Amino acid sequence: MGEAKWIGIDAGSTTCKAVAVDAAGDLIASRIEPAHPVIEDQAARLVDELRAEAGAGGEVPVVATGYGRKLVRGATRNITEITCHARGVFRALKQPGMLVDIGGQDTKVIVIGPGGRAVDFMMNDKCAAGTGRFLEHSAARLSVAIEDLGPRALGAVGEESISSTCTVFAESEIISLVARGAKVDAILLGLHRSLISRVVAMIHSVGLRSPLMLSGGVARNLAARAMLEQATGQKLHLPEHPQLMGAYGAALVGLESGADR
Fold first, then answer.
1. Of 96, 105, 151, 193, which sits most exposed with the smallest number of CB within 10 A?
2. Burial class of residue 20 in the structure, from the number of CB atoms within 10 Å of its CB (0-12 exposed, 13-18 middle, 19+ buried)
3. Domains by residue range for the chain, with CATH
4. Cα(71)–Cα(95) distance, rounded to whole angstroms?
5. Using an 8 Å Cβ cutoff, are 67 and 106 in contact?
6. How many whole angstroms separate alpha carbon 80 and alpha carbon 172?
7. Is 42 helix (H, G, I), strand (E, B) or coil?
């Protein structure tokens, strides 16, 4: 393992991710944990942990991205999520194409060009519909663990339609369905269908490109992946660490720019 040369922090709305890369741009250490209300302290602690794990001193520079990027103390640069996700996924999968990043609070559809540059994008950050929060909120209402959402949806016998793309209204639909005796797994399948339909609408607004790549926390959801492939007719390509791509891209941008620390 090489010594850390740059650290990337993705201070997201629901999780905080941090990675360290060596001089070759390889990921050598990482952290991911729920976002803390005081992001300054959390980011500082994660940076210290990565420096210690990667055998580096206090001189390793930091690049920040995500909602809380301007709150990361000591960051050499603050860079938009679009730029960082595009760069991280391009390095991880070694190809241009279209990236769908479904996070906790927003969804991004990014067209990645040669060299990992974002050439077009659409971002949904005004409503929880089409994001991981939509599923998390619904899972809590149905008393289903997050890790069980995908398998239970895929195993459903029948499907309950969820017409609302608004989280608040969808909850009202869930309550009505439960009161009528609808099966939880069938409701979950309908919820996934609703989320994916919103994501696919974003994809077509930008213009579907191949290959289609997926990152973000929802990339771990088997049902979301299967339904997205079915709806687009495209095989999905996933990086090894789908939740770390923003932080990884931030570290790579720092490394490649040679920004003065």
1. 151
2. buried
3. 6-86+243-257 (3.30.420.40)
4. 32
5. no
6. 35
7. helix
Q: How buried is residue 38: exposed, middle or buried, by Cβ count under 10 Å (0-12/13-18/19+)?
A: exposed
Q: Are 110 and 98 in contact (CB under 8 A)?
A: yes
Contact assessment for residue 216 and residue 244, using Cβ atoms and an 8 Å cutoff: no
pTM of the predicted model as reported, rounded to 2 decimal places: 0.89
pLDDT by residue for the chain (261 residues), tens only, comes to 567 789 999 998 789 999 999 999 999 999 999 999 999 999 999 999 998 887 766 678 999 999 889 999 989 999 999 999 999 999 999 999 999 998 877 899 999 999 999 999 998 755 555 567 778 878 888 899 888 999 999 999 999 988 766 666 777 888 899 999 999 999 999 989 988 998 999 999 999 999 999 999 889 999 999 999 999 999 999 999 999 999 999 999 999 986 444
Residue 10: enclosing H or E segment and its boundaries?
strand 6-11
Q: In whole angstroms, what is the distance from residue 16 CA to residue 66 CA? A: 9
Any idea what DSSP says for residue 220? G
> Is there a contact between 108 and 99 (Cβ–Cβ < 8 Å)?
yes
Exposed / middle / buried, residue 37 (Cβ in 10 Å: 0-12, 13-18, 19+): exposed
Here the tokens at position 82 are 């679009």
Could you give the CA distance from residue 74 to residue 227 in angstroms, rounded to a whole number? 42
Strand locations in 92-151 (E): 97-102, 107-112, 118-124
Q: Is 129 helix (H, G, I), strand (E, B) or coil?
A: coil
79 touches 111 (CB < 8 A): no
In angstroms, the CA 165 to CA 159 distance is: 16
